Amino acid sequence: MERPRPKWVIWLTTDHMRYDCIGAHGNDMMHTPNLDRLVRQGISFDDCYAQNPLCMPSRCSFMTGLYPQQTGVTQNGNTLRPDFEPTVARTFKAGGFQTAQIGKLHFQQHEDHDLDPRARHDYGFDTLWASEESGCYNDAYMTWLYTEHPNLVEKFRVPRSTSPERIKEREGRVVDAPWQMSHSGWVGGRAETYLSVRHATQQFVHMGFYAPHPPLNPTTEMFARYAGKDMPPPRCNGEEWHDKPEPLAGLIRSFADWTVERFVDYRRHFYAMVTGVDLAVGSLLAFLERIDMIDDTLICFGSDHGDMCGDHRMILKHASFYDELMRMPWVLFWPRGFGTKGRRINGLVEMVDQLPTLLDLAGCPVPPVMVGRSYADALLSGEPVDARQDVLAYHEPGWAMLRTADHKYIRYGYGQEVLYDLGETTPEVVNRAHADPKTLASMRERMLQRTLEASRTPLVRHFRY
Predict the structure, then answer these.
(1) Helices 33-41 + 260-290 axis angle, to 10
(2) Do β-strands 416-421 and 407-413 pair in parallel, antiparallel, or remain unpaired?
(3) Helices 260-290/183-195 angle, 10° precision
């Protein structure tokens, strides 16, 4: 029997969005009816883990199907080579798709990029409407805002990423403007405009939302669901740094002066930013239904990493490797391919598995150099997914995490180790590195083997010598 093949593939990615920022994933505080629909009528991987806790290395990894060590992008500020193979756009083009990038991609550094007159790298995209941040550059988003809604420009203006004023990104503020004028609204609107004149062609579109990445500036409509609402306190367990090695102990101490109320306010505005993305997803689904393309469009939803949102007395992202940062949503929705009964998949998978799976589902060749796995056969047949025994993450300068179903091992250098027993009532709190030497040695050996495997070059060997 011939496999179905989607006419369109739309990959939606957010920034900083945790697994539990979708209501259907068990968080009653979230107002995400459209993302809930994708989960309940699609396929949701419940144990998908990132390969790096920061934006650029994570994106360059899951959008190439390779580990950070193999792409050469292991921290923010590195740039993926313009001619790098494979990339998401080049692999979909090889399968006959036209490709478009709208919003945040972040394969290259964007600091002060509107001061650089040289053309931006397109990484194989046929159409590139780049907006790496939301309101600090004269990019595609701000150009649109200047042109269409000049009276709102200053409302959405935020400090540049290198400005000392950027520290205020941690404090939420509500913007009195229609949600459609936000960066999330712009990404959704541009995608609909692009697709509205391309009914007869195979299209791959990456919709790169900057939200819920700070600055936390939701519009009134986004924030309305959370204003004045009681929020549960973050998961804090005293002074957790005492049994942790540096630099993890230093990371935890960084926010020791924050009150619980301040963490809660951060989370309230953060959730509102997620709701802005959900509004854009709802508009996209309604658009696809109007033009009768909902059944033939494969939608993938995910993020690059999470945000602590006050848990463990921390915010933002960093190399602490907590599950709040590393466990990601991965949702697939395709009525003609999967039906709409909904399916939840347990078992460890890695974000490098996303691109090979999407390519395989779309009928595109999967480059053999990719280390990610394709789960297309199991998803289409309903058979069990062959989950991984462990998941790996790597961050410069040589810090790494290995997680199994039962334990998490983190290494910051010689003698700087963390071991968590994930079966404890409050996991990822007590460091068992000294109390359980047998498990520590086993996890250390597994990490060594996985790290060696993940360091193989993606370069093709043409000759013997």
Answers:
(1) 60
(2) antiparallel
(3) 10
> Would you say how long the chain is, in residues?
465
Q: Answer for the pair 162, 129: CB distance below 8 angstroms, yes or no.
A: no
35-65 in b/e form (b: 16+ CB < 10 A) is bbbbbbbbbbbbbbbbbbbbbbbbbbbbbbb
Quote the tokens at residue 247: 């630099």
Per DSSP, which regions of 66-132 are E strands? 98-103, 127-130
Return all residues near 94 (Cβ < 8 A) that are at least 6 apart.
Answer: 364, 365
- Give the single-character DSSP code of 214: S
Question: What single-letter DSSP state applies at residue 46?
Answer: E
Res. 117 pLDDT band, cuts 50 70 90: low
Q: What is the DSSP letter of 121?
A: P
- The per-residue DSSP string of 396-414 comes to TTTEEEEE-SSEEEEEEET
Whole-angstrom distance, CA of residue 51 vs CA of residue 430: 23
Nearest residue to 440 (alpha-carbon basis) of 415, 465, 458: 415
Cβ burial of 166 (10 Å; 0-12, 13-18, 19+) is middle
Amino acid at 350: E
Question: Averaged over 35-40, what is the pLDDT?
Answer: 98
Q: How far apart are CA 189 and CA 83, in angstroms?
A: 30
Taking only the tens place, the pLDDT of each residue in 325-360 is: 999 999 999 999 999 999 999 999 999 999 999 999
> Of the candidates 191, 247, 206, 176, which has an alpha carbon nearest to the alpha carbon of residue 413?
247
CA–CA dist 211, 188 (Å, integer): 12
Report how far residue 278's alpha carbon sits from residue 273's, in angstroms, rounded to the nearest whole number: 9
Q: What is the rounded CA–CA span in Å between residue 105 and residue 40?
A: 28
- Match 């949600």 to its residue by tokens: 179
